[in-house]
Amino acid sequence: MTTTAIGGQSGAVRAGTADDGYLPTRPIVRIHLLGSMRATSYLGDDVLPRSKKARAALAHLCLTPGARVPRARLATMLWERVRPEQARVNLRQAVFDLTMAMGPLAGELISTGRATIRLNTEACWIDALALLKSPYSNPTTRADLAVLCPGELLEGFDDVNEPFGEWLANERIRFKERLASSLDAVLGQVDRGDFDPEQVETVARRLLSFDPAHQHAWNAVIRALAKRGEQKQALSEYERCRQTLEAVRVKPWTETEQLYEHLRVEAPQRNRQSIVQVSPEVHRGAMDVRSIGRSAR
Question: Which class in CATH covers the domain with range 194-294?
């Protein structure tokens, strides 16, 4: 059965890629959109359709969580160079390929109407959506996801066709912006007090992959390395930070320069570890490095 959106058009209002309400209650399928696309059932069976157009249709449904997507939109997006009647036939075949790949789970995952198609994302775990959950969710889980979910959104799908490529380019921009904002919030949660250097470095480096000029992330990487006693590597990261910022005509923060000077003095001294302690009040734009202590010899 189709629904009617505001304005009288068939279908539903499009849910955004970064839908903060995405909270799968009982996932029976895991779908990976970052890097090489994969889909497996809760039993570990491969449920990804073979056809690239069917995979592209599934990806579009994943990135419009909970929405009833108009068949006409999908057909036009995936087969823009054929007649509308043929495009609709091709879409029916792609949906058939998708349901066949999902086997007995298809009835619970795919809802089809005469004019719309919907993926039950509440029954799916989707890596891209999991990374874009509310920044107030568990920061440890989010840090782990930053490691487990690397890669570009839908790698290898740029050549599906021109309309899909344009849609994908926009989705990648939106995804990167939202993920950078989300990881920034997570970094603020884990980078405080007696922080875990591995966790902080992981989140900070993932954030730098999206925003190379993010100074709080650079400082976090440098302090994480220093806390592990890797002063030389920390100094190298400062140099990378300086060069990156110079390329965009930005100067390092005063706090960054102070941290560098301390590490430069400490590095030659008998291979001692420098443990960097950050006050609990970590403010964006004005990091307060209260003390840089030394570990026991």
Answer: mainly alpha
Distance between first and last Cα of the chain: 72
The number of angstroms, rounded, from the C-alpha of 222 to the middle of its chain's C-alpha atoms is 23
The third-level CATH classification (topology) of the domain covering 29-178 is Arc Repressor Mutant, subunit A (1.10.10)
* Domain extents in the chain: 29-178, 194-294
The b-or-e profile of 168-203 (16+ CB within 10 A means b, else e) is: beebeebbeebbbebbbebbbbbbeeebebebbbbb
pLDDT in tens, the chain (297 residues): 333 332 333 333 344 454 445 555 579 999 999 999 999 999 999 999 999 999 999 999 999 998 999 999 999 999 999 999 999 999 999 999 999 999 999 999 999 999 999 999 999 999 999 887 754 456 666 666 666 667 889 999 999 999 999 999 999 999 988 888 888 888 998 899 999 999 899 889 989 988 899 999 999 999 999 999 999 999 999 999 999 999 999 999 999 999 999 999 887 664 544 444 444 343 333 333 333 333 333
Residue 117, phi then psi, degrees to nearest 5? -135, 140
Burial class (CB in 10 A: 0-12, 13-18, 19+), 50: exposed
pTM (whole model) above 0.90: no
